Amino acid sequence: MTESTYTLPPCPECASTYTYEMDPLLVCPECANEWDPSVTAESTESESLAIKDAVGNVLADGDDVTVVKTVKVKGAAQPIKPGTKVRGIRVLDTTDEHNIDCKVEGFGAMTLKSSIVRKA
């Protein structure tokens, strides 16, 4: 008998080499992670890094957006009202939810949450 040359990939969570197959998934016995081997790490990483607006559209640098909720601004007399247009946003790679850098007319430069804007 010959040994099989097919080896399973290591666990993407803990890098354990003791992975095994369980029908369509691969399983790690050390950290109990289950994943689909047909989905590449690059595709899941790019999907998770995409910044989406309130209705699910992917935002990119230079997009124009519209504010969909009232936003109270610290130090300002009035809030930013729904329907306010913001032109030429810049998408930030941050860990908090404030992932849009922009200039709002009448308020100046600020960061906004992507969940309160809609792509125009």
UniProtKB/TrEMBL annotation:
Transmembrane segments: none annotated. Residues 51-120 form the Protein YjdM C-terminal domain. Signal peptide: none annotated. Residues 7-36 form the Protein YjdM N-terminal domain. Gene3D superfamilies: 2.20.25.10, SH3 Domains. It comes from the Bacteria. Pfam families: YjdM (PF03831), Zn_Ribbon_YjdM (PF08274). InterPro entries: YjdM, YjdM_C, YjdM_N. PANTHER family: PROTEIN YJDM, PROTEIN YJDM-RELATED. Belongs to the YjdM family. NCBIfam families: phnA. This is Zinc ribbon domain-containing protein YjdM. It comes from Corynebacterium breve.
